[in-house]
Amino acid sequence: MSSGSDIKKPACDELRPLAEQLFAQLRHASFDGVGVTRDSFGPAETAAQDLIALAARDAGLHTERDRAGNLVVTLPGREPLQSFIATGSHLDSVPRGGNYDGAAGVVAGLLALICLKRQGIVPPRTIKLFALRGEESAWFGKSWIGSHALFGLLSEADLARTRFDSERPLRDYYEDIGADVAAIARGEKLLDPAMIGAFLEVHIEQGPVLAAQGLPLGIVTGIYGNLRHRQVLCRGTSAHAGATPRFLRHDAVVAMADFIMRLDRHWQQWLDRGKQLAVTHGIVGTNAKEHAISRVPGEAVMSLEIRADNNETLEEFHGLAQAEAQAITRERGVAFVFDEAIVNRPAPMDPRWRTRLTELCSGVGIAQMPLASGAGHDAAVFAHAGVPTAMLFIRNTHGSHNPEEHMEMEDFLLATDVLMQAMLVCD
Amino acid sequence: MSSGSDIKKPACDELRPLAEQLFAQLRHASFDGVGVTRDSFGPAETAAQDLIALAARDAGLHTERDRAGNLVVTLPGREPLQSFIATGSHLDSVPRGGNYDGAAGVVAGLLALICLKRQGIVPPRTIKLFALRGEESAWFGKSWIGSHALFGLLSEADLARTRFDSERPLRDYYEDIGADVAAIARGEKLLDPAMIGAFLEVHIEQGPVLAAQGLPLGIVTGIYGNLRHRQVLCRGTSAHAGATPRFLRHDAVVAMADFIMRLDRHWQQWLDRGKQLAVTHGIVGTNAKEHAISRVPGEAVMSLEIRADNNETLEEFHGLAQAEAQAITRERGVAFVFDEAIVNRPAPMDPRWRTRLTELCSGVGIAQMPLASGAGHDAAVFAHAGVPTAMLFIRNTHGSHNPEEHMEMEDFLLATDVLMQAMLVCD
Known about the structure:
2 copies of one chain form a homodimer. The first copy, chain A, is 37% helix and 21% strand. By secondary structure, chain A is of the alpha+beta class. Chain A is elongated, with a radius of gyration of 24 Å.
């Protein structure tokens, strides 16, 4: 592979003023008095696309809207018969959100293209930047609408979804922006995944890991899938707390606590062995119809969510949880009843691309770490469509989906540099 | 001490037909179609008193109602200048309750007196049997009204309490039965505790311990007091379950489970060391206003009830619980907030009387075990008034406060024998 050694480094530093200007313009165009609000498929999202398109055309890049209204910026490569390299992210935000969740990846892609263009570099593959629409589920109750549309994955029911604020259906919004609603409605693939050699998405980390570790960048191992039980019921035997001694109790709360602690210990051990997963009991409770302070609880419920960056981890840990429930059943004379598991498949990132990104960082001395993405991204849709996909996370100190998101321009430019070099990789 | 070796054994066996007849009459007089209902201070409780009084007078014993309407049956002793020995229990039941909870202790006392009387034995001390009124909190929302009245412990507010079914105040019920309401209202001691050399109460066990151990009798170590926190709040930090890795979590549910399991292990260890206590978290829950399956829980609450047969155990375990909460606070970065502890003092049984009862059982080959009473009893009121108090439990296979209560006549007669012999103890 080529590591892009024919370009000057750090090439993107020259574009820092443009980066700052673009983020300022994006913020200005969508400031709502508290944070930024770029409504999916609405005027603020379109205005953000226009800003990006204008900057692209100013740099001599070709821009267009695809049939689903996503903005596409193209830098032609030397080998037009090869699949192209895709990059990008989304421009919409949650209401009163931050300026970087989504936009950072679009601006990084644009700057990388501009940087190459300015230097007169013709990349081996054509590069297409996607500014995808409707990534945030806050608006239509569905995530990643833009990438779903690209791969023919929206249903009639999806098009009938209404936006929470206007109560207008997605179909109307698609018509507003001149999309090919008929093709979207019949599930036509607007883009053949086989045409895409890779999808590389830059995004701010939505959690605190990189900040806590003092690292500017993270290389995503996979986008967490999850396996959820809305309710695991632990059934014991209600009894008088005074008259029922320990050896005759079947205490549902203690059994549940035992279960939670066993999974907690396993989780730590699995992390120690290098697995990427997260285990959460977000909801627990006794039965308000019968519980009392002085009653041995006969019933307790908890939710169970397992997240992992690959299916094997998800399924193995799920099996372990059930085995522990059986062990506790035998030891404590209780019963565990798991409701039906709801599974969202993980999207492992492409191993070759992970290695490449790691090597590119090492090559220029950028400290990074591998980490899983707990939140979902358009990249998962590309990965599930069969596109070799990778993600680069930028350190962010205040979480996402709030006005306090914070990304250092320094970190952003490092990510842009790595992305640009990755685009020149040719295999 | 005298162990009553001057009486024939098993003297009470001759009274088996009378015992069966009395229990049958009591049941018949208060059968409600499902169980027995002997309403506190109402006609069914009075009818039960009348049945007992009639049987007592038939046997030549003196009967009277004290100034609080409790039935008192007296067998004069040889030493009228000494304090008397008291025995007894209550005759009321919960609605749709069983025939033995309370009544067993009154019938046992009566049979013991009749047995002595028939044999012409004049006990060293005068013996008084109390059939106490209003023990069950089901009726007026207050327990042990009869014994409270005896020791001047009822307040004006108590007299204003209304019975759940009639909504008439306790004061009216006291007037109905011709009690000295004025004396009760001003908190006069109707009975000087110093006059009572001992209070010995026979009662069915309300839990399953003796049945599980295959033992007919239990000698009560103490009546559990309790220390309750209605709410222990565990405050962590809410976070996105996908984006927040383990090492950055402050998970309130896991911290709560950790706390519950630590106390559970300590409880077992304390039992192994011979302590009598019970630990219960009857209510647990996350905050429904903010919890979600995919959210690291930022808040969890639990109740904490510690029961023990003496104050030291109660306070020491409470201290241990707080120390564990502090340890978890340090380890997990959460905070525990305990609401105000509500304490009901335990009533330890008199050590000398416990030893005597144990020796009396051994002397006639009755298998027994020491056990704490989880439920409260009139005996606790006597003990708190400073009367040396002891209790004897009779095996019962189906719990109390339900029609399925079950006591074997064989076990009952053993208890009656032991009680009778205990009454002859002279020190």
